[in-house]
Design goal:
This protein is an alpha+beta fold and about 750 residues long. About 60% of the residues lie in helices and about 10% in strands. Strands 1, 2, 3, 4, 5, 6 and 7 form a seven-stranded mixed sheet that branches. A two-stranded antiparallel sheet has the order 8-9. A hairpin with a 2-residue loop joins β8 and β9. Keywords: FAD, Fatty acid metabolism, Flavoprotein, Lipid metabolism, Oxidoreductase. Pfam families: ACDH_C (PF09317), Acyl-CoA_dh_1 (PF00441), Acyl-CoA_dh_N (PF02771). Its cofactor is FAD.
Length: about 750
Amino acid sequence: MSFRRDFISKPLFAFARGAMPAMSDTEREALEAGDVWWDADLFTGNPDWSKLLATAPAALTDEEKAFLNGPVDELCAMLDEWKINWEWRDLPPEAWAFIKQHKFFGMIIPKEFGGLGFSPYAHSEVVRKLSSRSLTAAVTVMVPNSLGPGELLMRFGTKEQQRQWLPRLADGRDIPCFGLTSPEAGSDAASMVDTGIICRGNFEGRDVIGLRLNWHKRYITLGPVATLLGLAFKAYDPDHLVGEQEELGITVALIPTHLPGVEIGRRHLPAMQVFQNGPNWGRDVFIPMDYIIGGQERLGEGWKMLMTALAAGRGISLPSLSAAGAAYAARTTGAYARIREQFGISIGKFEGIEEPLARIAGTAYLLDAARRLTCAALNQGHHPAVISGIMKLHATERMRTVIDDAMDIHGGKAVIDGPQNYMGSLYRAVPVGITVEGANILTRNLIVFGQGAIRAHPFLLDEMNALGEADRAKGLDAFDKAFWAHVGHSFKTMFRAWGRSWTGGLFAPAPDAGEATRFYRQLSRYASAFALCADMALLTLGGALKRKEMLSARFGDILSELYLLSAALKRWQDEGRQREDFAALEWCMASGFRTIENRFAEILANLPNRFVAVILKFLIQPFGAKVTGPSDRIVHQCAQLVLEPSAARDRLTADLSAVDDDGGIARLEKAFLLVTAAEDVAKQMRAARLHDWKEAVKKGVITRADGEKLQAAHEAVAKVIEVDDFAAEALSPIYRRGADVHQFFQELGEQRAAS
């Protein structure tokens, strides 16, 4: 007999068991998907920095490097994004053939099944490089290697299914897609009305038990060209052919698109992006049970399978595309701001330009740091569901901010479309990344903290499992153990958070990291405050916290910043503490700390239990939010990273596609190098108050060689700031009758007058 268990824990157990809201199967399966990693350390409130720094950086094998420098560069050379988007409305046939020939669709498929067997980091690097050349190509390649039939077969397929389908997917004989989203069910996949009724039927001359499927899916990438459709639907067994249960739940199956009843719809046009995307339907499509991924025993396990696959996939594809977009914006916008002059000086020297330019550079540093750290975890076999959600949400959101900043700095150059506009396609594509693989609003408000609080918290999941245990005695024992461990943890966290907050993190744990040591101390301080506030919110709100979406979102923002800033520090360490990059790290830290402190202030101002809110404010933020963000000095130094040629600029924007011939990027890079090389000559001209280099040569101010260098720079800049224009008949079919535009309108007026 235990006095604590029987007289204290038992009534608490009974109360909590009755108060705990019911959890749906889909919620439980989503929570159980994947695993935890560094997010669990952050939730303890006392992260072990040695564990983070000991994590091996993501690295490529020689084979993976050869693929990036060979087939990936060759594919990039085939791609003209303007023609892809505005003339062909698709990848050119030779690109499709090349993608299949070199097994781009089989990067994640093991070699034993004919795939490339690449690591998550190699997958990420391929998507990143392709994204800097053509978003259409990047999306086309990344979808078969992300959530879809390939990954599901690898994880859950039977041996027979793997032998049959994986080699065909690897070499492109089959093009896959995955149908999840329905008109009635987007983020709420449990509401789908697509059905699979278990019945007897004829399949290829055999009388078998199978499923008769009816579905309507939309927004399906690669759907219009797919030969193998992965399908999510709800399975039912009304005649009890496989068991006593009628409603079996969400199930996933493979549907060859040539089967009778499968209808492939016409194409969608997502924000003027032309990657293959469209709807499809199934009307009384019959499949045998062995077309269920994993076989009959996987009936009803589809949601768990999808969530497990998504736990890794969301951490690779879209974050890679977003990191590429940020680096691309940093390289192009920094160069453009350097060569473009207004009022007689480079616009990069204006503080109004420096601020967004620093935001672009700092974000590029942060996103690629987080991408690399996440890939390092995936390379080690982790499937961190919460971190993947953080990555998808914040990578795409921050890419949106960065691209908006880049558009503002470029002005009309990025607004006027044409072959020389290197920003327009990326700008139009931003909403696609924001929307797919889980809408960002939902992810921020419900998923990051909601899932993280349960999965990553050191005790909460154990307590919930104990409360849900069918055997009450066993459940009480487990609850007693977890609950009192939680109580002890909470008291330690309270004193830790109080001490670190009141001392400004001065004595918080941190590794010896040179100039960056102080940043680790602040993150240790914020982690303890986060753990304390999260515990108090869970204690006072319980299950109601799930409905407090704005509070949940703020907690999620803090957790996200803690992870992203950890990644930035890890990058700084792994790259050898490059002094020239420190401005980018400082910008990341100052911006992140401002967000963290503001979110704490917002939580404390809105926590329903005002008594607890006052106590928490006294403990962790007695004087309110104090960090104001990057100083003007940091902004200036961070902006300079992309305004001059340097090793720091190259590290920030490494491994982007360099193939561009005489396109907009090539012209920009040429002008950038010429302008910076001629800077000293330009200064001499300004000092002499001369504008004509030939006159300056005559007066002996500069040499003829210097004058020609300056002239070459001016001509290169003129080529960059040019924008495209088009003949009227090239843009509109109205003018393609061969008549003069004025004649056309004259005839139109005459026709109207006559009528």
